[in-house]
Amino acid sequence: MNRIVHKCCAWSGAMCLVAMLVGFVLIAGFIPTRSPGENASEVAQFIIGHRTRIRWGLIVCMLSSSLLMMYAASMAIHMRRIEGRHPALALIQFGMGALFVLEFIYLIFFWQTATFRVDRSPELIQLLNDMAWIPFVGLTSTAVVQVACFGIAVLLDTGEHPIFPRWLGYYNLWVALMFTPGTFNVFFHSGPLAWNGILAWYIPLAVFATWLVINPIYLSRAVDTMAVDVATPARVAGNASASTELSQLRADVDQLLAQSRQ
């Protein structure tokens, strides 16, 4: 085990948060978020008028999104420690994390495409903006499942010395719940559930930011326990099963060798 690699993966969520703030907020200027109720001319004026800032800001976001994959890998590794040899939750979480990164990158390029041609009609620019914002806020299923799986895994750790504090599991389940209001932004052009609303966007965004800070703290601490991994029942069962299979394999090999000598 390379401790530095695992520490970098653990803290990659927080590093991603910093990079996203720089790219999405400071450079691209996407917060405060403009209303979905704006007409096509207003949308086009903003995007074309700020196209250079938007392009560079979203390039930063695109590059930093890869850090979320490292973050998902860190969670999966420690979930595997909890679950043992058949880590269903760890695999689901890692898969959802990979999908989340792909979704994020793909949606970024709708905005990039909107900035690409200054002579494009305002209606088409508005369409591309809608195609980016609606799923960017509303595509919640992958993130919800990813976070919920981690929370459940933490709660399933019944060992004498759990890898994570139990409250972290409940916290992650709460985070998953708080992501869900954005799902309904497609029905609203204004109000708290619109893509710039407090329930659909700003509260989930703030919760997401805390998730990228709180989890890394405990993932980093979990790295420190890997060398002296305290076995939970699941881990003991997994190790015992592996030992039994290895012994059986050795016996089969010995039997084959004995037969070949006859």
UniProtKB/TrEMBL annotation:
TM helices/strands, residue ranges: 12-31, 56-77, 89-111, 131-156, 168-188, 194-214
Entry keyword set: Membrane, Transmembrane, Transmembrane helix
Keyword Iron-sulfur: no
Keyword Lyase: no
The protein's name: DUF4386 domain-containing protein
